[in-house]
């Protein structure tokens, strides 16, 4: 089931592509927390509306932010993204001798420079950071250019919201807590990330990652994506496809991610988990950079699209 939220309440997409209201439903996380019984009742409601000639379809373009996250945890699950990003950070933002050393080693040996590879913990334990859940943009809203960076970047990410509480959960229980999937753009400041990587005691996700995230208008229920590592998507800038990718080959599954995130603490409905950048789907990996005035559109097949125009006059949230 695909859902959106409007000022009047929740709406859902019928099989024929039209959208109808779900009367009395205003809170998307609450709806997802109702479980299978609530979902099946809503499916029946929408089917009834779609078959009723007197029923009035609603405009899905009136959608607003689908919900307000209680928190956001952003994981990194793909070795290829890790390596390609590290290589480009060195090439673009590190002192020239470092870039030359890396390029020379890889050219001569035909192998990846060892320091570009993740350490063994990457494979043993799911890695994440806690993002700023209050700085959110909805689809169609204008993104500001952060004053502390010259290299603003996008990241295409498949994310989900929890529908059940978790604490010290096992992988099976944890995976069953997924409520719905959506598109997320984890905006990044790449020059700041490189500086933090070299200088900050807290690592590369301090000021480079805390200023904004965008959430798409569409949320699909968990049953609509039975195999999350089969998702595919792309990024368009001003209508031009810049990159395409998939979620195949993640080093950790959702159950393991949530089991680790809930270890020693409690997660609640409304907490957001991002699986991280889909490999190849950020400007850093491409060494291609967005500019003021451009519109960045992210898409994940079967879920939907998320677009924001970068406006020099927009102000931070």
Can you tell me about this structure?
- There is one protein chain.
- The protein is of the alpha+beta class and 317 residues long.
- The model has no long low-confidence stretch (mean pLDDT 96).
- The radius of gyration is 20 Å and the shape is globular.
- Strands 1, 2, 3, 4, 5, 6, 8, 10, 12, 13 and 17 form an eleven-stranded mixed β-sheet that branches.
- The two termini are 31 Å apart.
- Helix 3 packs across helix 4 and helix 3 packs across helix 7.
- The chain folds into two domains: 61 residues, no CATH class; 193 residues, Fumarylacetoacetate hydrolase, domain 2 (Alpha-Beta Complex).
> What is the assigned CATH homologous superfamily of the largest domain?
Fumarylacetoacetase-like, C-terminal domain
State the shape. Answer: globular
The unreliable regions are none
C-alpha end-to-end distance: 31 Å
How does the helix and strand content classify structurally?
A: alpha+beta
Helix-strand string: EEEHHEHHHEEEEEHEEHEEEEHEEHEE
Number of strands: 19
Computed Rg: 20 Å
* Helix percent band: 25-40%
Considering the chains and any ligands shown, give keywords for the structure.
317 residues, alpha+beta, Fumarylacetoacetate hydrolase, domain 2, 2 domains, 11-stranded mixed beta sheet, 4-stranded antiparallel beta sheet, 9 helices
Task: List the topology elements.
Blueprint: E1 2-6, E2 9-13, E3 19-21, H1 28-33, H2 35-51, E4 71-76, H3 79-93, H4 96-109, H5 120-124, E5 127-130, E6 136-138, E7 152-153, E8 155-162, E9 166-167, H6 171-175, E10 178-186, E11 188-189, H7 190-199, E12 213-215, E13 219-221, E14 232-237, E15 240-246, H8 254-261, E16 266-267, E17 271-282, H9 283-286, E18 295-300, E19 304-309
Parallel strand pairs: 4-17, 6-12
Antiparallel strand pairs: 1-2, 1-13, 2-3, 4-5, 7-11, 8-10, 8-17, 9-16, 10-12, 10-13, 14-15, 14-18, 18-19
Helix pairs in contact: 3-4, 3-7
């Amino acid at each position: 089931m695909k859902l959106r939220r409007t000022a009047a309440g929740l709406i859902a997409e019928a099989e024929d592509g039209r959208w109808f209201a779900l009367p009395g439903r205003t809170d998307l996380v609450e709806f997802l927390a109702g479980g299978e019984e609530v979902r099946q009742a809503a499916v029946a409601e929408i089917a009834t509306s779609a078959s009723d000639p007197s029923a009035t379809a609603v405009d899905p373009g009136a959608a607003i932010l689908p919900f307000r996250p209680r928190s956001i945890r952003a994981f990194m699950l793909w070795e290829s993204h890790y390596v390609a990003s590290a290589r480009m950070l060195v090439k673009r933002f590190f002192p020239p001798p470092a870039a030359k050393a890396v390029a020379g080693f890889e050219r001569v040996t035909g192998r990846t420079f060892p320091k570009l590879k993740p350490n063994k913990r990457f494979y043993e334990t799911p890695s994440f950071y806690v993002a700023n859940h209050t700085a959110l943009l909805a689809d169609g809203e204008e993104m500001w250019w952060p004053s502390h960076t010259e290299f603003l970047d996008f990241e295409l990410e498949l994310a989900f919201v929890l529908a059940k509480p978790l604490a010290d959960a096992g992988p099976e229980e944890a995976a069953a807590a997924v409520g719905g999937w959506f598109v997320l753009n984890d905006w990044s400041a790449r020059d700041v990330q490189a500086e933090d990587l070299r200088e900050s005691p807290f690592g590369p996700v301090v000021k480079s990652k805390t200023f904004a995230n965008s959430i798409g208008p569409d949320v699909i229920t968990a049953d609509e994506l039975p195999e999350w590592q089969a998702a595919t998507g792309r990024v368009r800038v001003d209508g031009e496809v810049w990159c395409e990718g998939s979620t195949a080959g993640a080093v950790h599954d959702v159950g393991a991610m949530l089991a680790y995130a809930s270890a020693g603490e409690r997660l609640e409905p409304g907490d957001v988990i991002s699986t991280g950048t889909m490999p190849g789907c950020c400007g850093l990996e491409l060494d291609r950079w967005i500019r003021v005035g451009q519109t960045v559109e992210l898409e994940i097949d079967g879920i939907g699209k998320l677009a924001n125009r970068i406006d020099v006059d927009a102000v931070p949230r």
